[in-house]
């Protein structure tokens, strides 16, 4: 069965067929690096990290590009507030972004282009659009003629009159139409700027992605993705300018993930309920946050709460216990290949996992299949007689599908695990000597979550698995 994707552009589910049978050109809009990213940003990067991993598993050669917008009005404002240059602010928050994403298990893209490193490519695009009559200069600013592009508004599925009404909120007499948008912005005194045929200035937001996508992926992308909030105007404007520039379709499939709600309210800066990943990492593990972000279908909204994350902590503990017990059981298993029963069960689990992911990348259902695999793992471990081949096959399935694709399962080495447990027991003993009983109880609870039970005996502390 082919992978089925919901394409925002057509409003339909379509079989996935890239331009080249074995290659995928994949572009995801990255953050504007004027501050720390929030949990809504993280949903984009975690989910499409899984999509990239799954496409690779399905045999595609994926070229994955995710940009950084490192110059815009917000960066300029932040640089003034922090007393640093725009490049210094951008560099600091790019580093912070990678720290957050490393903790959430997001792999680096093949290319992380920065807007400021591609000014020439943007100017080339703008020059071509002017020559074709799709753009015009007004006293150092350059604007795109939106109404000249056929089907403008198709991605966001909004009539032109509604788009015009929204655009009139920002009155600008310099533009021919309220829908026209800036390709190049004339520099204000003291602002960061580059020389151009239209005078000193800097690029508009939308032209950045068009120029960088074309440089690294060509005229037509297979997948362009981002949050729902980017559908209009950003992605709509990317389509308009890119297709006018190249004369070719810009992207075959447009994927957009849903919003995150904080309780019953949509997360937004105006409501003051934005949660930064940097702050959440002080309360939860990166794996808990990643699990939460994958626990609902990507196009659906998802509600964040302490209760939901705490439930995920219990789920992770069940997985970790099964993995640890599997590793421990390996040492006492008899020699032999995987049984026919195990091979057949893993074949069915694989079919179900692929079925979930092929069905518009349904990570929620894929996680359900992972729990079926955990249940089967517990059945295997509990058997009086089991072959090492069966256990290794089960271990390999969990590692590949739960770890390599979903990024949720962490495999353990038995020797390392036992050393970690002994270290925690020693730490607990020291806490008790220091009469820090709350810390001692916390360590016991941590071990219990991993399926490790402690027993106080006259001979000292003993531990056993549940």
Please, could you describe this protein's structure?
With 466 residues, the protein is an alpha/beta fold. It has 3 domains: 291 residues, Rossmann fold, CATH 3.40.50; 101 residues, Up-down Bundle (Four Helix Bundle (Hemerythrin (Met), subunit A)), CATH 1.20.120; 52 residues, no CATH class. The chain has 15 helices and 15 strands. The strands form 5 sheets. The chain has a 4-stranded parallel beta sheet with strand order 4-3-9-10, sandwiched between helices. The chain has a 4-stranded antiparallel beta sheet with strand order 5-6-7-8. It is globular. It is an enzyme of class 6 (ligase). One of its GO terms (biological process) is cysteinyl-tRNA aminoacylation. One of its GO terms (cellular component) is cytosol. It is found in: Cytoplasm.
Keywords:
Rossmann fold; nucleotide-binding; cytoplasm; 466 residues; Four Helix Bundle (Hemerythrin (Met), subunit A); 3 domains; globular; alpha/beta; 15 strands; 4-stranded parallel sheet
């Amino acid at each position: 069965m082919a992978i089925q994707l919901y394409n925002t552009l057509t409003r339909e589910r379509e079989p996935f067929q890239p331009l080249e049978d074995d290659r995928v050109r994949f572009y995801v809009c990255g953050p504007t690096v004027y501050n720390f990213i929030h949990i809504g940003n993280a949903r984009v990067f975690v989910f499409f990290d899984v999509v990239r991993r799954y496409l690779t598993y399905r045999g595609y050669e994926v070229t994955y590009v995710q940009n950084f917008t490192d110059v815009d009005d917000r960066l300029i404002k932040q640089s003034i507030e922090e007393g640093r240059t725009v490049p210094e602010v951008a560099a600091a928050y790019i580093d912070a972004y990678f720290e957050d994403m490393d903790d959430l298990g997001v792999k680096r893209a093949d290319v992380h282009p920065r807007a400021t490193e591609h000014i020439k490519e943007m100017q080339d695009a703008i020059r071509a659009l002017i020559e074709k009559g799709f753009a015009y200069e007004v006293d150092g600013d350059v604007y795109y003629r939106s109404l000249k592009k056929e089907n403008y508004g198709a991605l966001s599925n909004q009539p032109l009159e509604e788009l015009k009404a929204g655009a009139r909120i920002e009155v600008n007499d310099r533009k021919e139409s309220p829908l026209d948008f800036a390709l190049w912005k004339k520099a204000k005194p003291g602002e960061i700027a580059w020389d151009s045929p239209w005078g000193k200035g800097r690029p508009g937001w939308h032209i950045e992605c068009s120029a960088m996508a074309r440089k690294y992926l060509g005229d037509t992308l297979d997948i362009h993705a981002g949050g729902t909030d980017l559908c209009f105007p950003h992605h709509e404007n990317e389509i308009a300018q890119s297709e006018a520039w190249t004369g070719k379709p810009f992207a075959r499939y447009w994927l957009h993930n849903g919003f995150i709600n904080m309780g019953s309210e949509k997360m937004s800066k105006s409501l003051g309920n934005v949660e930064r990943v940097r702050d959440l990492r002080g309360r939860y593990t990166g794996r808990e946050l990643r699990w939460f972000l994958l626990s609902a279908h990507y196009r659906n909204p998802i509600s964040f709460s302490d209760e939901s994350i705490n439930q995920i902590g219990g789920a992770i503990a069940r997985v970790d216990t099964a993995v640890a017990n599997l590793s421990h059981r390996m040492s006492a298993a008899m020699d032999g290949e995987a049984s026919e029963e195990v091979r057949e069960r893993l074949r069915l689990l694989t079919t179900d996992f692929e079925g979930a992911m092929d069905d518009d990348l349904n990570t929620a259902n894929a996680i359900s299949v992972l729990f079926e695999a955990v249940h089967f793992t517990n059945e295997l471990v509990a058997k009086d007689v089991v072959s090492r081949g069966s256990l290794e096959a089960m271990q390999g399935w969990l590692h590949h599908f739960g770890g390599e694709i979903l990024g949720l399962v962490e495999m353990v080495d038995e020797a390392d695990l036992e050393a970690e447990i002994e270290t925690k027991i020693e730490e607990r003993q020291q806490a008790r000597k220091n009469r820090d009983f709350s810390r001692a109880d916390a360590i016991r609870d941590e071990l219990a979550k991993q399926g490790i039970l402690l027993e106080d005996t006259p001979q000292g502390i003993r531990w056993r698995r549940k």
